[in-house]
Amino acid sequence: MSDADSTADLVEGNHRHWDERVAIHTRSPFYDLDGFRAGAEPLDRFQLDELGDVTGLDLVHLQCHIGLDTLSWARHGARVSGLDFSEAAVRAASGLAADIGLDHRARFVAADVHDAVDVFGAGAFDVVYTGTGALMWLPDIERWARTAAGLLRPGGRLYLAEFHPLADVLDDGDGVTAVHDYFARGARTYEVSGSYADWEAETTHNTATEWHHTLGDVISAVAGAGLRIEFVHEHGTIAFRRCDALVADGGRFRYPDRSARLPLTYSLAASAPS
């Protein structure tokens, strides 16, 4: 079997994994769809501040899952498109858009992220957005960056908010001890039942594969795709309890006061040539 065939098999395993978890996520308190329908804001404050006013802009959300972040940008005035490889996730996102009356300015498409230019057309968007928990599912970060660049109009912006890759190597308990090699690349396949949204849920497709990309990998890929890096910001909060040491803080989690702190998420903005 070639490396390409092996990678395709791993991605297909992830496809089955995520398809199965859509139903778990749509009914879970973690995503709280009832709260979202009532107006709750799932985006971090720093995302809203950093990306700024999106009124009237065409925004595409790559790897959009069930569409909460996508539709949040629509609520803030953007015309949005969401793309995800899970057909079940796209159906859920489309249904949610109809529920909140935004189906006229939101569309969702099931496709591989690397096919996004073929799906939407080159230079179709003012903003390409990627939210937390997306990049580790991609085997080729450089190919992803080229795809993002291909979707942008002249002067358009790539904006991503993502889990900090340093967090991937830290102990699940104390959150500060390194237990994995930060510089190790390649596929990491593991078995996990349930979901981060409901660990007690019964699941069948429990094999998942992630690919570790360092912060330098991501920055270099974006720059290599011809985009100009505007900023890279590191943040001390995260949307879920990544390790036991974290404490709740206004719907997010952070390290306790007077403890050693490490970055938990980061954000990056880059612009296409005008």
Tag the structure with descriptive keywords.
single chain, 274 residues, alpha/beta, Rossmann fold, three-stranded antiparallel beta sheet, 8 helices, 12 strands, methyltransferase, Methyltransferase type 12, S-adenosylmethionine-dependent methyltransferase activity, SAM-dependent_MTases_sf, Methyltransf_11
CATH class (first level) name: Alpha Beta
Helical coverage, percent range:
25-40%
Q: Which strand-content bin applies to the residues? A: 15-25%
Radius of gyration computed on alpha carbons: 18 Å
Q: Structural class given helices, strands, pairing?
A: alpha/beta
| CATH homologous superfamily caption | Vaccinia Virus protein VP39
Q: What is the domain total for the residues? A: 1
Largest sheet: 7 strands, mixed
Distance between the termini: 44 Å
Oligomer: single chain
CATH topology title: Rossmann fold
Described by the principal axes of the CA atoms, the overall outline is: globular
- Provide a count of the helices: 8
Low-confidence stretches: none
DSSP summary, beta strand count: 12
In the CATH hierarchy, the architecture is: 3-Layer(aba) Sandwich
